[in-house]
Amino acid sequence: MRSFSLLVAFSCLIFANSIDAKRYWPSTTLTDWSLYLNNGVAYISSPQFPEHCLHSRGQINMSGTEFDKAQYAYALSAKARGKSLRYVIDNTHTTCVITGLLEVN
């Protein structure tokens, strides 16, 4: 499981730093968060999301790619084990799409 975590975190770092310079790791770690599915989209909801994120949540697109599936599985595993999360989002959109996750103790 540890190698899977490292693979997802490494993939997230590469993806987050590649195309869009507006993506960033917010400084606040999500310690109080929930995960739910709605109409084929996974949402992480928390009052700790930045103000520009509509409804205090970020979404994990579930387009069927291995990356999306891995990111959802990673969040599900972190929630089941009571872990906090760091995440990557865009700093300009109100619909905050999560493009990277990292669990923290």
Give a topology summary.
Elements: H1 2-18, E1 23-24, E2 34-38, E3 41-45, E4 57-61, H2 66-80, E5 84-90, E6 96-97, E7 100-104
Keywords: Signal
Signal peptide: 1-21
Question: How would you characterize the overall build of this protein?
Answer:
The protein has 105 residues and is α+β, with helices and mostly antiparallel strands. It has a single domain, classed as OB fold (Dihydrolipoamide Acetyltransferase, E2P). 30% of the residues lie in helices and 30% in strands. It contains two helices and seven strands. The chain has helices spanning 2-18, 66-80; strands at 23-24, 34-38, 41-45, 57-61, 84-90, 96-97, 100-104. The strands form two sheets. A four-stranded mixed β-sheet has the order 2-3-4-6, covered by helices on one side. A three-stranded antiparallel β-sheet has the order 1-5-7. Strand 2 and strand 3 form a beta hairpin. The protein is globular. The relative contact order is 0.25. The model has no long low-confidence stretch (mean pLDDT 86).
